[in-house]
Write a structure and sequence with these properties.
Radius of gyration of chain A: 20 Å
CATH topology of chain A: Aldehyde Dehydrogenase, Chain A, domain 1
Strand order of the largest sheet of chain A: 7-6-5-8-9
Largest sheet of chain A: 5 strands, parallel
Structural class of chain A: alpha/beta
CATH topology of the largest domain in chain B: Aldehyde Dehydrogenase, Chain A, domain 1
CATH class of the largest domain in chain B: Alpha Beta
Strand content of chain B: 15-25%
Order of helices and strands of chain A: EEHHHHHEEEHEHEHEHEHE
Strand content of chain A: 15-25%
Structural class of chain B: alpha/beta
Number of strands of chain B: 20
Distance between the termini of chain A: 87 Å
Oligomer: heterodimer
Radius of gyration of chain B: 24 Å
Number of helices of chain A: 10
CATH architecture of chain A: 3-Layer(aba) Sandwich
Helix content of chain A: 40-55%
CATH superfamily of chain A: Aldehyde Dehydrogenase, Chain A, domain 1
Number of domains of chain B: 2
C-alpha cells in the first residue's frame, strides 16, 4: 500500500483561454502502451467546435494587430515555458511506449521548432512580400496577411512535436486556430495548452479540442466562418479527401494538405507559413 | 451673348471643374462628333475551328455556335464547339508537347518564345483591340489603351521569368506541373488569356485554354500568333465552347492544374468537381468591391475614381467598386457630383472613340442586369439613371445609382457585374470598414482620403487582395492580383503569380 495516493489530472479542453469540459458531457478513455486506462479525455461535439470557432474569430483580429516583433516574442515565450516543463512532457510521452531518450529528443525538438518559427515572425513578410515596379505612376507593394481562422488536425503520431509543428506555422502569421488533438493520445496537447496559457498567448488564438476525427471532420471542414483547414496525414483515403474538398467548396476554404511521414525529421519550412497567408497588393498614386 | 456682368463673373471665376461653384453645362455644350474606329482592315473568317496541336481542327461533333456583336445583335462568325473528344485530343497534344519539347528546351529559349508572343501582340495590337470591341462590346478606347497593351506587357513580364525561377523561390527547387487547363471569362478576353498563358508557359507548362463562349475571337487570333511565332505544336491549345466544354477540361484526368476566372458560383462547382483529385487549382472569382470615401478625400478626384471603379468596362469587372461607402458629411455633395459626372458619360457604339460605356457583353448578362435593377426597385431602393440616349439595337444599359439601400439588400450583397452602383453612408472609420468587410467576397476595395495614416490603416483593415488608395482599377503585370475569402485563391501577376504553376521541392 502506497504512503500516498497520487492526484490524477483531469484533462479538459482549451477554448478561448479557458479550460472547459465538453458541453456534451461525453468522454473517451485514453490507453497507455499496455492497454491500461491512463485518463479520460473529452469527446468534443460539433457545439464545442462551433464555440471554439467563435473564440478563434474573436481573437484573430487582436492577434494579427500585435506587432510582428511581439508575436515573435510570444512564440519565444512559449518555448521558454516549455523548456521549464521539459520533464513533465517527457514523462507524459513515456506511457505511449516512447523511450526516455526519444521522448526527451521530441520535447527538445519541439522547443527548437518554436524558436525557429519565432524568428520568422518578423521576416516572412520581407521574404515573401514584394515591391512591384508598375509601369504607371503608382507606389505598389504586396504583403502577406493572415488567412484568418484555421481548423486543423494534429497528427496521430508524435502527439507533442506534431501538434506544435501544426500550430506554429499557423499562428506565427497572425491566424488563430482550432486544433483537434491526436485522438489516440491527446494528453500532451492539453498539457501544452497549459504552457500556452502561461505564455502571453492571448486566449482564443489557439484552441485545442479532443475527440474523434471521424465525428468532427465534417464540421471542421464545412464551417462557414473557418477560412482554412490544415492536415498532415501521410496517407489519405480518396473518398475521405473528397468529402473534405467538397465541404471546403461551401465557402472557398483553403485546404492545406502537407503529408508528413516522420515527425522526428525536422518539419520547419517558412513556405508552410505562406500557406496560411493571403497576398494583399496596395496601390497609391505618386505625384505632387 | 454675354452681358458685361457675366463676363466679369467668368473672369473672376474661370471655368474649372474643381471650383465649387462651377458645374458642367450639359445643354448641348458637349456635343461630340462621331469618331469611329475604322474596322475596314479587319479580316474575319466566317467560321473558326479549334486550335489543337498547332493546327486548326474541326470539332468532333461538327457543331458550331454563333458569336454575336452585342452592340448590333448581329452574328460575327461561327465558332467550333469542343466536346469531350476534342478536349481529350487537346490534352493529349499538350501532354506530348510537354514531354517531348517544352520541358526539353532550355528555360532561356522558352522565354524567347514568350517574348515573341509579346511582340506579335504589339504588332497586331489595333486589330486585336477592334476585334475585342466588336466581339465583347467594350469601348475601343479601353481595348486599345488597356486590354491589349496590358496583355502584351504580361507576356513580356513573364517571358523574362522563364530562366530566373530559382530567384523567385529561395531555397527551393522549382519544377513545372505539366498540363494546365485554363478557363477564362468574357470581360477581358485577351488580357485574361495573357494572365493565364504567360505564367504557365514561363514556368514550363503546356496549356489547354477555353475562352468564354461569347468572346472566343481574340483567343483564336492569338492561336494564329502562336503558329506565327513558331511555338512548338501542342504547347498552346485553344478549345472553344460553353460550360460543358469547361467541365470536360475540369474533369479530365490528364490535366495537372486548373486555373479558372469567373463567378464564385461556378468556382464552387469547380472546387466540388475537383474534390478528391490531385489537381492543383487557382480560382479568381467574383467580388463586391467596397469603395470608401472619407470626408477628407479630394472629392473631385474621388468622383472620377468612383466613376472609373464602377463604369469601367460597363461594370463587367470582378474587382469593380460596386459598393460606394461615403462618409455622411460629404455624402450629398459626392452624390450630386456623381450624378453630374454620370450625365457626361457617353453610352453607345463600342467602336466610337468617344464612347465611355459600350455594350453589355451578351443578352444573358443584359437580362441579368435588368433583373437586378428591378430587384433594387422592388427592395425599396431609390434608383437614378443618367438621361443619356442609348442605341436602339444592341444591349446597352444606362449608368445607374441606387441610394437608400442597406447591407441586407440583394443589390448590395450580390455581384451584378454591370454599370450599377449602390451608395451607403457611414459615420466613423470603424463603421465604414465594418460595412466594407461585411461580405463573403474579398477581391478589391478602394479608399479615398488625403490623410496618409488613414489610408494605411483602412487599407490594412479591408479584407481583400487588392487595395486601391486614392485610385481604382489599376492593373500591371508586375502586380499580384487575387482574392481573399470567397473571391478565390492564388494570385495572378507579379512574382506571386508564378507559384500556382510550379511544384517546389
Amino acid at each position: 500500500m502506497a504512503d500516498r495516493i497520487n492526484v490524477l489530472k483531469t484533462y479538459k479542453t482549451y477554448v478561448g483561454g479557458k479550460f472547459p469540459r465538453t458541453e456534451s458531457g461525453r468522454h473517451y478513455k485514453v490507453y497507455g502502451k499496455d492497454e491500461e486506462v491512463i485518463a479520460n479525455a473529452c469527446q468534443c461535439s460539433r457545439k464545442d467546435f462551433r464555440d471554439a470557432v467563435v473564440a478563434a474569430r474573436g481573437a484573430q483580429n487582436g492577434w494579427n494587430s500585435r506587432s510582428a516583433y511581439n508575436r515573435g516574442q510570444i512564440l519565444y515565450r512559449i518555448a521558454e515555458m516549455l523548456e521549464g516543463r521539459k520533464t513533465q512532457f517527457v514523462e507524459e510521452l513515456k506511457p505511449l511506449g516512447i523511450h526516455h531518450r526519444t521522448a526527451q529528443k521530441e520535447v527538445e525538438t519541439t522547443i527548437d521548432t518554436l524558436i525557429y518559427y519565432a524568428g520568422w515572425a518578423d521576416k516572412y513578410q520581407q521574404v515573401f512580400g514584394s515591391i512591384n515596379p508598375v509601369a504607371s505612376n503608382h507606389f505598389n507593394f504586396s504583403i502577406p496577411e493572415p488567412t484568418g481562422v484555421v481548423s486543423a488536425f494534429a497528427p496521430e503520431e508524435s502527439p507533442l512535436l506534431g501538434l506544435v509543428s501544426v500550430i506554429t506555422p499557423i499562428i506565427v502569421g497572425g491566424n488563430s486556430c482550432i486544433i483537434l488533438a491526436s485522438q489516440r493520445y491527446p494528453l500532451p496537447a492539453i498539457s501544452f495548452a497549459e504552457v500556452l496559457h502561461s505564455s502571453d498567448v492571448p486566449g482564443g488564438v489557439v484552441n485545442i479540442l479532443t475527440g474523434f476525427k471521424e465525428e468532427l471532420v465534417d464540421h471542421m471542414t464545412s464551417h462557414m466562418d473557418v477560412n482554412a483547414f490544415f492536415f498532415t496525414d501521410p496517407k489519405v483515403n480518396k473518398e475521405y479527401r473528397k468529402q473534405i474538398d467538397e465541404n471546403a467548396a461551401l465557402n472557398v476554404k483553403r485546404i492545406v494538405h502537407h503529408p508528413v511521414n516522420d515527425w522526428s525529421q525536422h518539419q520547419e519550412d517558412p513556405y508552410l507559413v505562406t500557406k496560411f497567408q493571403e497576398i494583399k497588393t496596395t496601390w497609391h498614386p505618386v505625384g505632387f | 451673348m454675354a452681358d458685361k456682368e457675366q463676363t466679369t463673373d467668368l473672369q473672376e471665376k474661370p471655368f474649372k471643374p474643381s471650383s465649387p461653384s462651377s458645374k458642367l453645362d450639359l445643354n448641348g455644350f458637349w456635343e461630340y462628333a462621331d469618331a469611329p474606329q475604322s474596322a475596314d482592315f479587319i479580316e474575319l473568317a466566317d467560321q473558326y475551328e479549334l486550335f489543337i496541336d498547332g493546327k486548326f481542327t474541326k470539332p468532333a461533333s461538327g457543331n458550331y455556335f454563333d458569336t454575336i456583336n452585342p452592340a448590333t445583335e448581329k452574328p460575327i462568325a461561327k465558332i467550333a464547339e469542343a466536346d469531350e473528344k476534342d478536349i481529350n485530343k487537346a490534352v493529349k497534344a499538350a501532354r506530348k508537347a510537354y514531354e517531348n519539347t517544352w520541358s526539353k528546351i532550355s528555360a532561356r529559349e522558352r522565354g524567347k518564345y514568350i517574348f515573341r508572343l509579346a511582340r506579335l501582340i504589339q504588332e497586331r495590337a489595333r486589330e486585336f483591340a477592334i476585334i475585342e470591341s466588336m466581339d465583347g462590346g467594350k469601348p475601343i478606347r479601353e481595348s486599345r489603351d488597356v486590354d491589349i497593351p496590358l496583355a502584351a506587357a504580361h507576356f513580356f513580364y513573364y517571358a523574362g521569368w522563364a530562366d530566373k525561377l530559382n530567384y523567385a523561390f529561395p531555397n527551393k527547387e522549382v519544377e513545372s506541373l505539366g498540363v494546365a487547363g485554363q478557363i477564362i471569362p468574357w470581360n477581358f478576353p485577351l488580357l485574361m488569356l495573357a494572365w493565364k498563358i504567360a505564367p504557365a508557359l514561363a514556368t514550363g507548362n503546356t496549356v489547354v485554354l477555353k475562352p468564354a463562349e461569347t468572346t472566343s475571337l481574340t483567343a483564336l487570333k492569338f492561336a494564329e500568333l502562336c503558329r506565327d511565332a513558331g511555338l512548338p505544336d501542342g504547347v498552346v491549345n485553344i478549345v472553344t465552347g460553353a460550360g460543358e466544354t469547361g467541365a470536360a477540361i475540369v474533369n479530365h484526368d490528364g490535366i495537372d492544374k486548373i486555373a479558372f476566372t469567373g463567378s464564385t458560383e461556378v468556382g464552387k462547382i469547380i472546387m466540388k468537381s475537383l474534390a478528391g483529385s490531385e489537381k492543383k487549382y487557382t480560382l479568381e472569382l467574383g467580388g463586391k468591391g467596397p469603395n470608401i470615401i472619407f470626408e477628407d478625400a479630394p472629392v473631385d478626384q474621388a468622383v472620377e475614381g468612383i466613376i472609373n471603379a464602377i463604369f469601367f468596362n460597363q461594370g463587367h469587372v470582378c474587382c469593380a467598386g460596386s459598393r460606394l461607402l461615403v462618409q455622411e458629411g460629404i455624402a450629398n455633395r459626392v452624390i450630386q457630383k456623381l450624378r453630374d459626372r454620370m450625365e457626361t458619360l457617353i453610352v453607345g457604339d463600342p467602336l466610337d472613340k468617344n464612347t465611355d460605356i459600350g455594350a453589355i457583353n451578351s443578352k444573358q448578362q443584359f437580362e441579368k442586369i435588368n433583373e437586378y435593377l428591378e430587384i433594387g426597385v422592388n427592395e425599396g431602393a431609390d434608383i437614378h439613371q443618367s438621361s443619356c440616349s442609348i442605341p436602339e439595337n444592341g444591349y446597352f444599359c444606362r449608368p445607374t445609382l441606387f441610394t437608400n439601400v442597406g447591407q441586407s439588400n440583394r443589390i448590395v450583397k450580390e455581384e451584378i457585374f454591370g454599370p450599377v452602383l449602390t451608395i451607403q453612408t457611414f459615420r466613423t472609420a470603424e463603421e465604414g470598414i465594418e460595412k466594407a468587410n461585411n461580405t463573403p467576397y474579398g477581391l478589391a476595395g478602394g479608399v479615398w482620403t488625403d490623410k496618409g495614416s488613414k489610408i494605411f490603416k483602412t487599407g490594412q483593415k479591408i479584407r481583400s487582395g487588392v487595395v486601391w488608395s486614392n485610385t481604382y482599377n489599376q492593373f500591371d503585370p508586375t502586380s499580384p492580383f487575387g482574392g481573399y475569402k470567397e473571391s478565390g485563391m492564388g494570385r495572378e501577376g507579379g512574382l506571386h503569380g508564378l507559384e500556382p504553376y510550379v511544384k517546389l521541392k
